[in-house]
Specification:
Oligomer: single chain
Distance between the termini: 15 Å
Strand content: over 45%
Helix content: under 10%
Strand order of the largest sheet: 1-2-3-6
Largest sheet: 4 strands, antiparallel
Structural class: mainly beta
């Protein structure tokens, strides 16, 4: 049995979108054109850099075979500030969890 830890650099293409479509508003003294202008969207697309850390276990179940399981926590750091009429929206960092299982075959002798 092999217990291991892992860590390193991570990067990914992050697309942040924000829109106000379907948000209920109270018309008050607003005209239809002003209400329509409030229904807007904004987006940003960029590559973010972050980190990955994790741990796993691998077990040799036969002379040339092993099975493994691994967990990774990945966080793509940074944020996007999107400007819309009347304000702004901010998208934060992007954390995610990844669980992997696998089977390995070793070529050659045991």
């Amino acid at each position: 049995m092999l217990l291991f830890g892992t860590g390193g650099l991570a990067w990914g293409d992050v697309n942040t979108r924000f829109n106000t479509f379907g948000i209920a508003t109270t018309p008050g003294n607003l005209t239809n054109a002003e209400l329509a202008a409030l229904q807007v969207g904004a987006s940003a697309n960029n590559v973010r850099v972050g980190f990955a850390v994790g741990a796993g276990v691998e077990w040799k179940v036969a002379p040339n075979w092993s099975v493994k399981a691994e967990y990774l926590f990945v966080d793509l750091l940074g944020s996007d500030a999107l400007t819309i009429p009347g304000g702004s929206a901010k998208g934060g960092n992007v954390p995610m969890s990844v669980a992997r299982v696998g089977v390995n075959y070793f070529f050659g002798g045991p």
